[in-house]
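User: Protein folding is very new to me. Would you mind checking the protein record under this note? It all follows right here:
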Amino acid sequence: MENTIKKIRQLGLNGDSLTDFISLLEKIESPKGHLLIKAGRIERVVYFIEKGIARAYCDQEDREVTFWFGAESDILLSYNSFFLGKPGYENVELLEDSALYKISNDVLQNLYNTDLQIANWGRKLVESELIKTEERFISRQFKTATERYEDFINSYPAVLQRVQLGYIASYLGISQVTLSRIRAEFR
């Protein structure tokens, strides 16, 4: 539970509120290849990755487009499902055998209503995830492929050696050939 507690504490949750929050987390273990979240479903759960790597992707015509990676200490959820109660557009696949902790939206909303420290922590968590999303969007729109790769290796050092190059190329919006050429420049 060390990685999960580290993530929760980073955003200022501690003391009795931390203890209460942790007591409501449910541990799950799932194998590599498991689809934790499936497109078209309503998934009102937040997951904390304790061990393993995941990717979020969308099916587009004849290919999968990866748009997010998560590793130890990261959180994952379907934004549309969790916040709006609508079917999500993404699939989240585990790329390694994984251990995660989860908490449902209903339990979390109850905590928000009864514990101001947890409510503020939840706000900080959403702000943090929004900033990360904006950074990915800006990178994709305004940076070269080489700059995006450099950002990727700085942001996801744990992921680089643990996932297929095709997923990384998809995430960066480039072909595997282009990724190989860029990687050769960094050697």
About this structure: The chain is about 50% helix and 25% strand.
